[in-house]
């Protein structure tokens, strides 16, 4: 291309979201458990550096949605949590790190996808909050990000009656939302992206989706179902005077300015980095995030942390990715592993239970099976059982009578760094520092 192209990537937890030969960084809700945001900035800076080294200019992150609906089918642990102020501060930390590394950070999904019970890839979610609730919860993180000079915002395909009363129409096609609210009222002057235009939330509800979003005020139209048709629709609207020269110039100039700011007209710089391979810095950041995010959800007096050099029974629920957690436990104690069918034969008074879910993506179920729940009820009858949960935080809602266990640790992700840190916390080598990123009552 004679005019340099912007390369964008949807890679919220690093390029591992898209590339198989790259190791993942933690999900945003794991970062939501951190008490301070310095590590989130460091992670954003590191992710941004690696993305730029791969030739990426635009990162569709952070997710600034406030996930107030535990059963949200598409946001969930992609969010930092359910507290608007925490989400705002952590979004700012991540976005600042990305932008300091030379990327355009794009916060999503304006005006907020966190309270939905539908997936906008499959249908048009309806956000039924009042305007006051939207301002104080969902829109608040975006307001704060605009103040810190976020360079991009993505508009979601959502029906929001408090902002636009049209039925079955996504706000991504609403001039009242994209132009009057986002640009005029909130004073956002950066690049406005649509969410993917091949998603059912807009493709099944809107004729000529790309044109409708452009007329609403969007600058960059992502993944239309038919690129040829979308371009033709916009060209025809321009020729008919529906799109003015002034309106076209606004978006063209914003895009060209963004390309200039990224240095894309200066030629391609040779990269000396190996962006696919983890460095010591990547490993250190992940180790620190694991150590500082793991959360002590519950403990009984005088039983936590465990005494080292004692004999312990270990039971694994779900499928471990490897034996890292068991190996880490054996660094501090004599550990005998029992299979679930041999629980009744255990001779140990102290038991550690590792709950291992598939945490490779945010969209796996990660909740307790009926058999696991039944076994946990039996184990809870024993005098000294310690539960370590490598799963999404919402799995805690599936634990009956949580206070019957000696301790419960929330370890969030099934990655080696979290397995090692969980064992260190269990035996008192590290102090628990994390906090639950969402608030809910566990069964008791």
Overall description:
By secondary structure, the protein is of the alpha/beta class. The chain is 33% helix and 12% strand. The chain is built from 14 helices and 11 strands. The chain has helices at 28-31, 38-53, 84-100, 131-138, 140-147, 175-185, 200-203, 209-216, 227-239, 245-261, 280-293, 324-329, 370-379, 416-426, and strands at 8-9, 58-59, 104-110, 152-155, 191-194, 295-299, 311-318, 334-338, 350-356, 384-390, 407-410. It has a 6-stranded mixed sheet with strand order 6-11-10-9-7-8. Helix 6 (175-185) links the parallel strand 4 and strand 5. Helix 2 runs parallel beside helix 3, helix 3 packs parallel to helix 5 (140-147) and helix 11 (280-293) packs across helix 14 (416-426). The longest helix is centred in the first third of the chain and has 17 residues, at 84-100. It is elongated, with a radius of gyration of 24 Å. The N and C termini lie far apart (62 Å). The mean pLDDT is 94.
Determine the strand fraction and express it as a percent band.
5-15%
Instruction: For the record, give the distance between the C-alpha atoms at the N and C termini, rounded to a whole number.
Output: 62 Å
Count of individual beta strands: 11
C-alpha geometry: elongated
Properties at a glance:
6-stranded mixed beta sheet; 14 helices; alpha/beta; elongated
Give the topology:
Layout lengths: L7 E2 L18 H4 L6 H16 L4 E2 L24 H17 L3 E7 L20 H8 L1 H8 L4 E4 L19 H11 L5 E4 L5 H4 L5 H8 L10 H13 L5 H17 L18 H14 L1 E5 L11 E8 L5 H6 L4 E5 L11 E7 L13 H10 L4 E7 L16 E4 L5 H11 L18
Parallel strand pairs: 1-2, 2-3, 3-4, 4-5, 7-8, 7-9, 9-10, 10-11
Antiparallel strand pairs: 6-11
